[in-house]
Write a structure and sequence with these properties.
Blueprint: H1 2-14, E1 27-32, H2 40-52, E2 57-62, H3 72-95
Parallel strand pairs: 1-2
C-alpha cells in the first residue's frame, strides 16, 4: 500500500494536471491517434481540464500518427492551425493599440 502511494505521488508530481488551475495561456494540442509517448486519453484529459477552466484551447488529433506527425496532410493542417492562432493573437493585440492620428 505504501509503495502504491509513493508511486502515485511520483506520478502526480510529474503530471501537468497538478498545475492546470494556474494555466491561462491559450493552448493547442496536436496529438497522434497512435502516440505511445503521450497517449490520446492523457491529451484529452488535459484539454478538458483547460476547457473547463475557461482557457482557450483546441485539440487536433491526427489519425494513423504517433508522437511527431509525418503525413504531409497532417503537417499542413498543423501549420495552418498554428498560423491561425498567431493571426488571431496578432489581430487581438492590434485592436488594443492606440489609433494613429494624422
Amino acid at each position: 500500500m505504501a509503495a502504491q502511494r509513493a508511486a502515485r505521488s511520483v506520478y502526480w508530481g510529474q503530471s501537468p494536471l497538478k498545475d492546470v488551475a494556474n494555466v491561462k495561456t491559450p493552448t493547442l494540442f496536436f496529438v497522434g491517434e497512435n502516440d505511445p509517448a503521450v497517449p490520446l486519453p492523457q491529451s484529452l484529459e488535459m484539454w478538458r481540464a483547460l476547457k473547463t477552466n475557461g482557457v482557450p484551447t483546441r485539440l487536433y488529433v491526427a489519425p494513423r500518427e504517433g508522437h511527431g506527425w509525418g503525413e504531409l496532410r497532417h503537417l499542413i493542417a498543423k501549420a495552418n492551425a498554428e498560423l491561425g492562432v498567431v493571426r488571431e493573437a496578432t489581430r487581438a493585440a492590434a485592436a488594443t493599440l492606440p489609433k494613429k492620428t494624422p
